[in-house]
Amino acid sequence: MKLEQIDRRQADDYWVLVRQEVCAAYLGVQVVPVPFLVDAEQYELMNVLLERSESVGCKILRRKSFIPLGPLKEILFDIDPESTELMENNIERQMNSTSDFDHEELVIDEGALKSIKLIVKHVNKEVSLFMINPETLKVSHKLPWIYHVKHIYIIYEVFYTTDIQLLVSDNQLIQQFKSKTRTPIGRNNWN
Question: I need a surface site. Which of 73, 140, 142, 162 has the fewest CB within 10 A?
Fold first, then answer.
């Protein structure tokens, strides 16, 4: 069998097939997987997400999606250094108890049966919790439209890995994605 290295964008085609089950099984049902590995860094701790809701088919059914906006401290206007320091100093880093896992499942992709194997090692969790008075927060003047957004979420818990490998195989080819860089794979947020 031929071995082919794939990049993060190509790996996303397979990540979307296993992400929900993997996060629920290994990180907990309350953990939301990052939608795509290619933009996983946008789901770092203390980043802001906007909720977007759209109709699906009819007006009764609605689908929610989240749009990453960036780090909280870059969105706020005139934030005092003490508040920034408070946010950054209250980040708690801990090893997750299920630090290594591998997950394998069979899927039909473009009419072919494929095996997807996801190996994740060195899973860590970061949590930030701090009190801040919402009335003191001023949004940057560069984002005036943000006042019309219904919900803004701040990511307060991130699960990330520094060793992820995705193997996809069929009868003729093995595709492999490896990354040893920090990659968020799941998150929790509050609004």
Answer: 142
Question: In angstroms, what CA-CA distances link 89 with 9, 45, 85, 129, 183?
Answer: 34, 13, 6, 10, 22
- Looking at this protein, which amino acid is placed at residue 38? V
For 152-176, how does the pLDDT look when each residue is reduced to its tens digit (9 = 90+)? 778 888 999 999 999 999 988 999 9
Q: What is the rounded distance in angstroms from the CA atom of residue 94 to the CA atom of residue 45?
A: 13
Beta-ladder partners of 49: 68, 153
Answer yes or no: is pLDDT of 84 > 90.
no
CA dist 187 → 9, 17, 63, 104, 126 (Å):
20, 18, 19, 22, 10
Counted residue by residue, the chain has a size of: 191
The domain ranges of the chain are 2-190
